[in-house]
Write a structure and sequence with these properties.
By secondary structure, the protein is an alpha+beta fold. The protein is built from four helices and five strands. Bound molecules: flavin mononucleotide.
Length: 131
């Protein structure tokens, strides 16, 4: 998780830019994941080979668009949660993006990839909602 540095009216454009860069780079390095934005906070999941992830984390940690980076989970996993997403973003402050259809599609992703670990989904939603 991290906190956005720029002005409120630049968040949408910054998110789009980050997504565009991330989709290209992450595809190249076989990194998958998702990036949420909510109330000036980012929550991101990145998955892939450890070397690639460490290199990306180093780059992201130097990005001037955010600060207060906090690593919640850093662990080997058996299955990817976002196997087909090279870094989709979801802006939860945008009603057009935070809707039942998108949350259902996100949940479906977890169900398909992480069925034996459904507790991970609950944990993830809790973190997302700060509960
Ligand atoms: C919250 C946040 C998440 C980001 N996630 C990614 C990512 O998943 N992949 C990526 O390549 N860049 C990501 N970036 C952008 C990187 O910090 C950096 O600007 C970018 O990787 C530079 O790409 P380049 O070396 O191709 O210019 C993220 C930036 C922020 C602020």
């Amino acid at each position: 998780m991290s906190e956005y540095n720029g002005p409120d009216d630049a968040i949408s454009a910054d998110l789009k830019n980050i997504e565009a860069t991330a989709k290209v780079n992450n595809y190249r390095h076989n990194i998958t994941g998702v990036l949420f934005h909510f109330d000036r906070k980012f929550l991101q999941v990145i998955e892939g080979a450890e070397d690639n992830l460490r290199a990306l984390m180093e780059k992201i940690s130097l990005d001037p668009r955010h600060h207060n980076i906090d690593y919640l989970v850093d662990t080997p996993v058996e299955f990817r949660g976002f196997e087909k997403w090279n870094m989709d973003t979801l802006n939860l402050n945008n009603p057009a993006e935070f809707n039942v259809d998108n949350m259902r599609s996100l949940t479906k992703n977890f169900e398909e990839n992480l069925l034996p670990r459904s507790d991970a989904l609950i944990y993830f939603y809790r973190k997302l909602l700060g509960a």
